[in-house]
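User: I'm curious whether this sequence folds into something compact or stays loose and floppy. Could you predict its structure so I can see for myself?
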Amino acid sequence: MKTAIVYYSYSGNTRKVAEILAEALKEKSSVDLIDLQALDESNSFLGQCRRAIVRKKGKIAPVKLDLSAFDLICFGTPVWAFGPAPAINAYLEQCTGLSGKEVILFTTYGSGAGKERCVNYMQDILSRKGTKSFKRFSIQQFKVKDRQLVLAEIEKGGISEKA
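Assistant: Here's the prediction. I'll summarize afterward.
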C-alpha cells in the first residue's frame, strides 16, 4: 500500500502531526510526505485570516499533483478563519487522481472554532473529485508536541497502523 500525506504548515504544528501520522502508517504502508510551500503567504495574522475567509487559493511551489499512484491520501491544514489555509485550497483545486481513493483529513487548530467547517469544506471538494471514503481528526495546537496525545486523536478518528 502507498500513502501520500499532503500538508501545509505555517507554524510547524501541522508538519508535526503529519510526521506522527506518517510514523503510525509506516507499519502497513510506504509513506510520501508532500510539504506544500506557499509562495505568496502573508506574514500578518489579519492578512492570513482575510485570505482564508474568502477561500483564496494561494500560489504554491511546484509539487506532485497526480495522486493516482497512491492508495490512501491524507490532507492536513491549520484552521484559518473557519477554513483551510490558501495553500491547501490551491492544492485541492489542482490535484488529480482521486477517484475511488480513501482519504484522511486532519487539521490543527487554536480555539476549535471552525474546525468542523474546515474539514467539511475539504471533504466537499474531494467528494466532487470522486474519493471513496473519509476519516478525519483534529488536533489542538498545544497537543501537537505530545506524541501520545496526537496518536490518541488519530486513533479516535478511526485511523491506526492498519489504516
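Summary: The chain has a mean pLDDT of 89. Residues 2-156 form a domain with the Rossmann fold fold (CATH 3.40.50.360).
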